[in-house]
Write a structure and sequence with these properties.
Bound molecules: ligand MTE, molybdenum atom
Shape: elongated
Number of domains: 3
CATH architecture of the largest domain: Alpha-Beta Complex
Number of strands: 19
Mean pLDDT: 91
CATH superfamily of the largest domain: Oxidoreductase, molybdopterin-binding domain
Low-confidence stretches: 296-302
Strand content: 25-35%
């Protein structure tokens, strides 16, 4: 039993047993206030004080800028060619935040699971995150997911147990008091409202790992699906979206500023964003920015490797047309041209070239 991490206590307390800590205030102090101050309240224990949710004091805080993107982002557009099952999303089922919290690798080290180095092997185990929320897909049980132990114990993977979002205490919607943020992979693995963390031999058997969020080929439909034949989706592919225009906006002929976001998974930064104003026949390169006002250096090291880049290009539009964006990540992965080629029955990972129809009017 480890009594080296006990909290500080008021010196007035009469200690009746030190380990486990059992103490009471002097009787004169006890009745000197109607409400007993916390410091003076008697303490009765049978073991060391457990370490719970005290990450803020126990471990260094890291701030990680990371884009969280739902695998279902742009699902509505995928459903247009052939119907898919799932909540419809336009292009904004993602966001970029600065997450503050403890590194999962540090937390695991604290409980005796060493950081991954090139010489250690993790033995193929997984780290499971279990929430306190209840959902019907789990028959009223909690939402859960897992990531490989090798990722969880790697400090460079920046997996956080986050208690802050953009410098403020995490709010209830986003997982208060504690959520996981796994940068670079689909949002579904960033479990909110963490209840427990388990080291398990196989990946988590929860619904959202095994019966959902898997990428199937276009040939698979609900009557021939075999869930076990595919792995749970983790990494996010390269993505880009035009946000300054909606389909069939009417614009005046002349200069138009086109802007949007681009992001890739696995810490792969964005190498290039190409924009076309003739439906993809010819392209021009957009400029990219990360932090506002700081030009993104194309050939430099990506400082915010988990975060999106914003892009912008001014074009001359003279007639009604289709404006297209596609991004290339630093591994030279390119977005697929047609949504049909990546159609899947759950409508996940729609990363096809983003197209916007504009009408030119006077
Ligand atoms: N965690 C819990 N406990 N319950 C959930 O329903 N949804 C997941 C993930 N974590 C979910 C969860 C999904 S699918 C996504 S995309 C992200 O949380 C969304 O995070 P946000 O609501 O903070 O944007
Ligand atoms: Mo999601």
């Amino acid at each position: 039993l480890d009594y080296s991490k006990e909290p500080p206590r008021h010196p007035c307390l009469q200690i009746n047993a030190k380990e486990p800590f059992n103490a009471e205030p002097p009787r004169s102090l006890l009745v000197s206030s109607y409400v007993t101050p916390v410091d003076l309240f008697y303490k009765r224990n049978h073991g060391p004080i457990p370490i719970v949710d005290d990450l803020e004091r126990m471990l260094p805080k890291y701030n990680v800028a990371a884009t969280l993107q739902c695998a279902g982002n742009r699902r509505t557009a995928m459903s247009k060619t052939r119907k898919v099952k799932g909540v419809g999303w336009d292009v904004s089922a993602l966001g970029n935040a600065v997450w503050g919290g403890a590194k999962l690798a540090d937390v695991l080290e604290l409980v005796g699971i060493p950081n991954l180095t090139s010489t250690t092997q993790s033995g193929g185990k997984h780290v499971e995150f279990v929430s306190i929320d209840k959902c019907k897909e789990e028959n009223g049980g909690p939402y859960k997911a897992s990531i490989p132990l090798s990722q969880a114990t790697n400090p460079d993977a920046d997996v956080l147990l986050a208690y802050e979002m953009n410098g403020e205490t995490l709010n209830r919607d986003h997982g208060y008091p504690l959520r996981v943020v796994v940068p670079g992979i689909i949002g579904a693995r960033s479990v909110k409202w963490i209840d427990s963390i388990n080291i398990i031999a196989e990946e988590c058997q929860g619904f959202f790992m095994q019966k959902d969020y898997k990428m199937f080929p276009p040939t698979v439909d609900w009557d021939n699906i075999n869930w076990a034949s595919r792995r749970p989706q983790m990494d996010f592919p390269v993505q880009s979206v035009i946000c300054s225009l909606e389909d069939v906006n009417t614009i005046k002929p002349g200069k138009v500023k086109i802007s949007g976001y681009a992001v890739s998974g696995g810490g792969r930064g964005i190498e290039r964003v190409d924009v076309s104003i003739d439906g993809g026949k010819t392209w021009m390169e957009a400029s990219r920015y990360q932090k506002t006002g700081i030009p993104y250096i194309a050939d430099g090291i990506n400082s915010d490797k988990w975060a999106w880049v914003l892009f912008e290009v001014t074009v001359d539009v003279t007639q009604s047309t289709e404006i297209v964006a596609k991004a290339v990540d630093i591994a030279s992965n390119v977005q697929p041209e047609k949504v049909e080629d990546i159609w899947n029955l759950r409508g996940i990972l729609n990363t096809s070239w983003h197209r916007v129809q504009v009408r030119v009017g006077h």
